[in-house]
Task: inverse folding
């Protein structure tokens, strides 16, 4: 088996993590095994430089049993467990499993190296001590497994337990102390004795942030979830509370509060970059006449575990939503149906420019064919630059802030009805200062009369 020095391993791992080269490229260039490279990357991510250094470690029976139990509970692969516990030979775990299945905990005890000693002439003298030692080890193992089982039941699941803080673990252990030895409980929870006693002492003291938490919750509810930790910090300081914004962020996380305004938007980009159409709009969001410049995009809504996607077209002349369509999945029909509705508003002499982002829908050959059939010029934003389509992004922000976040929806059908009503209100009733205090439809009708 070829041996590699630490510098060679670090070089390959850094190439992969920086994104300059992938698994296939590194394997082809350096002639190493795929599994070996993956193990180096995982070890480096978990243990840093020490995870790549050559080590000769001694594994006792307790450590081997811990690894096997973790694999059985979590369903881990031997490779994952080897990276997690910094075990250099993945095959060792399989060997431990076979030994444990054959002889239990005693079989995991490392054997002394060298030639075996000759058996004594009277083996009966050693049978009793060996049997007693084995029985003692099995009883210790049984006591630990009982304590561990009680601890895990208290947390309901091991995966959930690993996500708990040290303070929550200490609180669970405090409740189990009357029934189990503290040493076994600490071992099951993975806590040191000093950490346990620190959190037990902390639990006995009162919460010094109780009054601040009450004010934070009051401000959050007063503004209907629109304020994040920065604005709540500013409001607290205006009220005379000198508190750091990081403290407010931590307290809001403890209370389960976060801003509901403008969550991460649906990103539809998949595929080639800048190969379909240039950015002809170039952020010129003003139009001299109707149906001269259009913009479009797709946004996503969540209701009771279900999704709804909205695809509208806006006329930059007056900001009017001239056509839109919804679907429960981001399929091409979402865009094609919207286009058919928009094209029905065009006159024979009108050939607008239609701008979009680089979403996969807008890169489809069928989409470009529909535009070509109606003499519509295609324009696309640069990748990852939402400002190139700021007009449509602004509409999505207004739609969600004024309608979606302020209402509760029981079903997708109820949301679809609400979107239809809001878009009608947005076009016909909602005034805009940029349109001289008129709604988009009023502004368009007034221009036609001049």
Result:
């Amino acid at each position: 088996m070829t041996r590699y020095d630490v510098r060679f391993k670090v070089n390959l791992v850094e190439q992969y993590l920086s994104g300059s080269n992938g698994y296939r490229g590194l394997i082809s260039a350096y002639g190493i095994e795929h599994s070996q490279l993956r193990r180096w990357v995982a070890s480096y991510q978990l243990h840093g430089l020490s995870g790549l250094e050559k080590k000769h470690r001694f594994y006792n029976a307790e450590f081997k049993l811990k690894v096997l139990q973790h694999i059985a509970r979590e369903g881990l692969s031997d490779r994952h467990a080897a990276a997690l516990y910094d075990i250099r030979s993945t095959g060792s775990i399989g060997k431990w499993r076979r030994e444990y299945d054959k002889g239990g905990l005693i079989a995991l005890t490392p054997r002394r190296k060298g030639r075996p000693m000759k058996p004594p002439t009277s083996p009966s003298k050693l049978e009793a001590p060996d049997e007693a030692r084995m029985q003692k080890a099995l009883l210790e193992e049984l006591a630990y497994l009982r304590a561990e089982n009680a601890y895990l039941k208290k947390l309901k699941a091991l995966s959930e337990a690993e996500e708990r803080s040290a303070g929550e673990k200490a609180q669970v252990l405090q409740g189990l102390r009357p029934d189990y030895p503290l040493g076994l409980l600490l071992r099951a929870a993975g806590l040191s004795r000093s950490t346990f006693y620190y959190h037990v002492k902390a639990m006995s003291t009162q919460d010094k942030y109780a009054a601040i938490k009450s004010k934070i919750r009051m401000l959050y509810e007063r503004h209907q979830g629109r304020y994040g930790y920065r604005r709540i910090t500013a409001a607290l300081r205006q009220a005379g509370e000198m508190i750091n914004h990081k403290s407010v962020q931590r307290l809001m996380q403890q209370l389960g509060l976060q801003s509901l305004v403008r969550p991460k938007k649906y990103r539809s980009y998949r595929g080639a970059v800048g190969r379909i159409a240039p950015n002809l709009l170039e952020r010129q969001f003003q139009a001299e006449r109707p149906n001269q410049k259009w913009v479009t995009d797709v946004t996503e809504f969540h209701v009771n575990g279900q999704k709804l996607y909205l695809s509208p077209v806006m006329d930059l002349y007056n900001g009017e939503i001239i056509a839109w369509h919804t679907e429960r999945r981001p399929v091409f029909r979402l865009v094609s149906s919207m286009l058919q509705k928009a094209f029905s508003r065009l006159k024979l002499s009108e050939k607008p420019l239609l701008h979009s982002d680089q979403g996969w829908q807008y890169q489809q050959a069928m989409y470009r064919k529909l535009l070509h059939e109606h003499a519509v010029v295609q324009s696309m934003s640069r990748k990852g630059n939402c400002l190139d389509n700021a007009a449509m992004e602004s509409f999505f922000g207004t739609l969600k802030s004024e309608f979606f976040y302020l209402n509760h929806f029981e079903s997708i059908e109820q949301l679809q009805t609400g979107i239809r009503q809001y878009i009608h209100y947005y076009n016909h009733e909602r005034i805009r200062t940029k349109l001289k205090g008129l709604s988009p439809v009023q502004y368009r009708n007034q221009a036609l009369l001049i």
Summary: Strands lie at 293-296, 299-303, 306-315, 320-327, 353-356, 377-380. The longest strand covers residues 306-315. Residues 124-155 form the longest helix (32 residues). Residues 287 and 317 are 5 Å apart (CA to CA).
